[in-house]
Amino acid sequence: MKSLKALQHALADAGHQLDILEHEKMFPLFSDKMKTAGLFPLLPAEPSIFQVNIGKMCNQVCKHCHVDAGPDRKEIMTKETMQLCLKVLEQQPSFTTVDLTGGAPEMNPDFRWFVQEIKKLNRHIIVRCNLTIILANKKYHDLPQFFKENNIEVVSSLPFYTQDRTDRQRGNGVFEDSIKALQMLNEAGYGINNSGLLLNLVYNPAGAFLPPAQTALEKEYKEALSERYNIQFNNLYVITNMPISRYLDYLLVSGNYESYMEKLVQAFNPAAAANVMCRNTLSVGWDGYLYDCDFNQMLDLKVACSESDHLSKYAQESISNREIILNQHCYGCTAGSGSSCGGAVA
User: Fold this and answer.
1) How far is CA 279 from CA 96, 265, 267, in A?
2) What is the Cβ-side half-sphere exposure of residue 205, based on CA atoms within 13 angstroms?
3) 25-81 pLDDT, tens digit each
4) I need a labelling partner for 288 at 20 to 30 A (CA). Which of 13, 187, 214, 218 fits?
5) CATH 3.20.20.70 fits 37-334, yes or no
6) Are 201 and 158 in contact (CB under 8 A)?
């Protein structure tokens, strides 16, 4: 039986869909745009990134979070499901990178065990760390050292290099804790030239607008963080906010949904569309179900091959021959320079 919170989330999602249906008639279907670009149906390339959401529990409640994560979420990947992930990785060597997400993935009680088992399979590991988790509890204080020992690439959201803009998006006190955590990661060697320990930051716009050019903003971030806090990092990933979940709440309540979608539609870029992340990434939900991307996962749009839509019945041939599911939110990945979990794509 669903919990009260789960039912509330489901009802909210249903309400969103009704609101969206009223607005979507104003915009061309994304699939039609892809047909014009010669990219429909959209087919996967060889899979290289195995992205796993190991739980929606988080110590933060960020306004832009497409996962709708928070302390009240109870969806946590079990060790048994993790073992199914490991089995797929053993069977499919083309998955060279395992991208661990949440929520705060570190809050899963089996997080460290899972990381060490993945390392035994000689895969590159990315952990999407929200930074404040490092300071949230004593049991997380050694995370920078744990990351270092396992040569994990750390990717962390930092909405801006000033306190007011960051705290508005992610909560009071988040900027200060994020700066402390970044300094701890630097002390462990992360983000330092020639250390081999990658520390990448993520920028999401705070309002109903598209992100600026990635290269220019990265330079701005590096100069500001270095001068003000003596912080170093490797790359800045600029990501467009997807019109789903909490960000969709914001767009609808503020009356910005139509204007934002208009921006995305007008900025459609065929070059970005050809390089969308769903072509080389497979997204795994906390319960083992499979999706084309993290955003489809949050909308419960499972892969279009029911015979292989869960880890327990994984078949690479079916996954390779499927058509990727497209919807209106996909405009977010194809606008301007494009957007992916690794930043701009065009």
Assistant:
1) 15, 21, 21
2) 18
3) 678 999 999 999 999 999 999 999 999 999 999 988 877 778 888 889 999 999 999
4) 13
5) yes
6) yes
Copy the structure tokens of residue 69: 């994560």
The pair of structure tokens assigned to 258 is 């139509």
Nearest to 271 by CA among 38, 30, 29, 108: 38
* Tokens 């955590």 -> residue: 181
Tokens of 90: 């053993």
What is the pTM assigned to this prediction? Answer: 0.92
Please report where in the chains the tokens 């599911």 appear, as a residue. Answer: 325
**On the CB side of 89, how many CA atoms lie within 13 Å of its CA?**
26
Nearest residue to 155 via CA among 82, 295, 51, 299:
51
| Every domain of the chain and the residues it spans | 37-334
Upstream peptide bond of 70 is cis (omega within 30 degrees of 0): no
> CA-CA distance, 175 to 167, in Å (whole number)?
6
